[in-house]
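Quick note —
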Amino acid sequence: MTLVELMVSMSVFSLCMAIVFGAVILVVRKSNDVQKSAGAVSELRLALSQMDRQVRSGNVLFSPAGETTTGCTGDTTTNSGTCMRVFTQANGPEKCVQWQVLADPADSTGATKILRTRSWTTDWVDTGSYTAWSTVARGLTLAGGNPFTLQGASTPYRERLLDVTLSALDSRRHTSVVITSSMSGRNTNYGYSAGQCTPVPPA
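Predicted structure written out below.
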């Protein structure tokens, strides 16, 4: 084998290796994008499942448009907003649960949102028994508008249907994947005060 043949062989081999490594890197990047997108959707589905249990065991559903926690926004004309509160018996004892969609503190652009939740007992003022906010999902958007809408009349007892619309950013397609669900609270008309979950713990 001459020196020229050796150089040509090495050049061809280097080119083939560059093509192979380029393909491997592309596959790894695409795989990471798929995992991120699937992870965001999976987080939302788990969150919706948890909400559904709480709402189905909910004795009082509060209007998202009336939430006053820091960062909550609402539209009284559509009874919708970025926060949701329910007095529920999910998983046993009665408690108040709140969900909120707000700007992700880790995103300096403010483009993405997080979904977080917390709960408290009705006697939290005396006992101090309430949980801190816990982040459930990241990488959300408000592509579908306000995430929480309560259907029905203006009283806490006649509104039984909660529409939830959550959207996650699909990093592969650079679009939002919207997941919607309608949750029905239990048919309770009497015996529970709308003041069970007030006052709301500090943010």
